[in-house]
Amino acid sequence: MTTTILIIVAIVALVILFFWMVPLRLWFIAILNGVHISLIQLILMRWRRVPPDKIVNSMITASKAGIPLSRDQLEAHYLAGGHISAVVNALISADKANIPLDFKAATAIDLAGRNLVEAIQTSVNPKVINTPPVAAVAKDGIQLIAKARVTVRTNIRQLVGGAGEETIIARVGEGIVTAIGSADTHKMVLENPDSISKLVLSKGLDSGTAFEILSIDIADVDVGKNIGAMLQMDQANADKNIAQAKAEERRAMAVASEQEMKAKAQEARAKVILAETEVPLALAEAFRSGNLGVMDYYRLENIKADTSMREGISKVGQEKQPNKK
Fold first, then answer.
1. 294 pLDDT more than 70
2. Which of 156, 190, 219, 265 has its CA 20 to 30 A from that of 247?
3. DSSP symbol at 133
4. Full-model pTM
């Protein structure tokens, strides 16, 4: 009994292995759909690690659409890491839309990492790219903030190696800044916003990109800050700060000069005091040497007293003079 069960299991396993290795059903479906592929090639696909169902289904789809594709082409693209179904669908869409696209170009675009189906759809139905707000200043110093809508379609010939949406947005933003900056007044831009789109569109911004720019429309223009007035205010504040710094420098120099004069005056007074201390010594020496007598000394003291009295009287007169007025 056990031996019989083992034999049955082995037979079932062999049958499953046979139908897995020999896809009779897939071969029969291919023949019914007019795709000629040998049974041996289907078997060898297993050994080449290529899924036969993907190859056969892609060949049937392409054949029904009138696009001749060989098994070797599809196998080579699959082994290169490409997406067979995406390439076939893109070829069919391009053919229906009368867009020139061959298998070699389609596989190159697919292997480059581009979404081939989306590219064909964008080529048929143009895409709208909304740019972020772009701020620019007119010649009168008024800032304007503009938003643009760029209508593009895919350029199949530039899809491999061409720049993407980021480059389009950057170039359009640069063109908007140039257009606003060349305007004499911000009112001219507000009155004719289409002048921005015409100037930007004439620059050929889609050169070297994977897109063809169809139109550039200015969606919104807002008035921003008065940059010219702000710059003038900043310049005035800077001039004021410079003037204050120079005035502070002059004040510091005046204080330093005053301190220097006070120091010189104190030095002079010190010299006078030092000289006055030598007067008694000189008088004593004159007495000893006989050059000065007692009467001469009294006369000298009378002169000093008279001078001091005269100075006191003059000071009292100066103090009373304002009161008389």
1. no
2. 265
3. P
4. 0.55
